[in-house]
Amino acid sequence: MALGRDRRTLLPMLEKPLVGAPQDRTQIFSFDLRTHRYSADRWFYPYERRGVSIGDFQLDHGGRDGLVIERDNSQGDLNGFKALEEVHLGAPGTTVGKREAADLLNIVDPARISLPARPGDVGLGDPFAFPFNTIEDLVLLGGREVVVLDDNNFPFSVGRHVGSGAPDDEELIVLRLARAVGSRVTGRAAR
């Protein structure tokens, strides 16, 4: 859920599409903090071909540009889909403009700060991967830096310790993106 441009509107995004709605997208709603009511404003977030759910959605202080965690349902699969998508909200009723900001399964770690690994661990070293089904939080630090967090749903998540089957630890990473959040991504009218 993000805070809108006017700082008086919450913009909750559904994790998955509504039952009976097109399954290739989800919706962002608008909730007025003064009246405690939803407005008729909606935006449509299109999933990538392999994406099926949203982990988190945050906007920068301008309230139109931000990041979304988009993922598939895999865990421990380095061929899965986990990404940060940079988004731009256009006018209500439009499809959110987006582009990939980071592939969370292919993160450069030249100093190998993610090591050492335990036997059977996946995604450690260079490249580093965040192979969790429960990547659920992000914090925009400003400019190009963002914090991404995994909620391990203890003891059920096994995305890192695949070989041993041990429950995942909770992990937090700080990423430096290729470009600052808010370098224009355009939206288009919904279909």
List keywords for this structure.
mainly beta, 0% helix, 4-stranded antiparallel sheet, 191 residues
Beta-strand content bin: 35-45%
The SSE order reads EEEEEEEEEEEEE
Structural class, from secondary structure content? Answer: mainly beta
- Biggest sheet strand order reads 1-2-3-4
Q: Based on the structure, what is the oligomeric state of the protein chains?
A: single chain
Quick recap:
This protein has no helices and 13 strands. It is mainly β.
Describe the 3D structure.
There is one protein chain. The chain is an all-beta fold. It has one domain (2-184). It has strands at 2-3, 9-11, 25-32, 37-46, 53-59, 65-71, 82-88, 94-95, 97-103, 135-142, 145-150, 172-176, 188-189. A 4-stranded antiparallel sheet has the order 1-2-3-4, with no helix packed on it. It has a 4-stranded antiparallel sheet with strand order 5-6-7-9, with no helix packed on it. It has a 3-stranded antiparallel sheet with strand order 10-11-12, with no helix packed on it. The protein is globular and about 55 Å long.
